[in-house]
Design brief:
Elements lengths: L1 E8 L5 E7 L7 H9 L8 E2 L2 E2 L3 E9 L7
Length: 70
C-alpha cells in the first residue's frame, strides 16, 4: 500500500502528521508542495485555537509491503 505522508507545523509551532492513502504519484514534488500549501489557509482543522495544518514542512511517499504468514 502506498500513501503520501506530510509533516506540518501547527500555528502554535508543534508538529502534525497527515497521510493520504493511494495518492496520485504523477505530480512533481513542486506540484505536491503547492497542493499541500493550500491546506493551511483553509483552517479546517483547529484544536485549542491552533490551526493543525498551518505550514507544510515535508512530504514523502511511504510504501508498506504486507507479507501474509498464514
Amino acid at each position: 500500500m502506498l500513501k503520501l505522508v506530510a509533516n506540518f507545523k501547527t500555528s502554535g509551532g508543534n508538529s502534525q502528521t497527515w497521510s493520504l492513502p493511494n495518492p496520485d504519484t504523477t505530480n512533481t514534488p513542486a506540484e505536491l508542495k503547492g497542493l499541500l500549501d493550500q491546506i493551511g489557509p483553509l483552517e479546517l482543522f483547529n484544536k485549542d485555537g491552533n490551526n493543525l495544518y498551518d505550514t507544510a514542512e515535508s512530504a514523502m511517499f511511504v510504501e508498506t509491503n504486507e507479507t501474509i504468514l498464514f
